[in-house]
Amino acid sequence: MSDSAVPPCPQCASAYSYADGAHLVCPECGHEWTPGESAAADDVIEVRDAVGNRLADGDSVTVIKDLKVKGASNALKVGTRVKGIRLVDGADGHNIDCKIDGFGAMRLKSEFVKKA
Questions:
Q1: pTM of the shown model
Q2: 71 lies in which domain range?
Q3: Which of 61, 79, 88, 98 is the most exposed place for a label (fewest CB within 10 A)?
């Protein structure tokens, strides 16, 4: 692969990327990728529930532990079913965005739910 055919880095758009064997490397951010690899592949969030099942947007889950909710007078009980979840990249570990009847919109940690 010639230098003129090397695409820019998909993460930082640096024009200084180079071929290193079968991989392409960006010297500015350190990102490595293979030619033809889609940039969207890095953006996919993989979230697994408490028993290891893979979760996806729109799934229904069940709460497996009583959870205290800030600002609410009562806890979220075991067995509460949550429909239509949305996966997010939560920096604090809260990677499920959802609406729960009686509680409203909130974020949950995947370690406290099981796929329904």
A1: 0.62
A2: 60-115
A3: 79
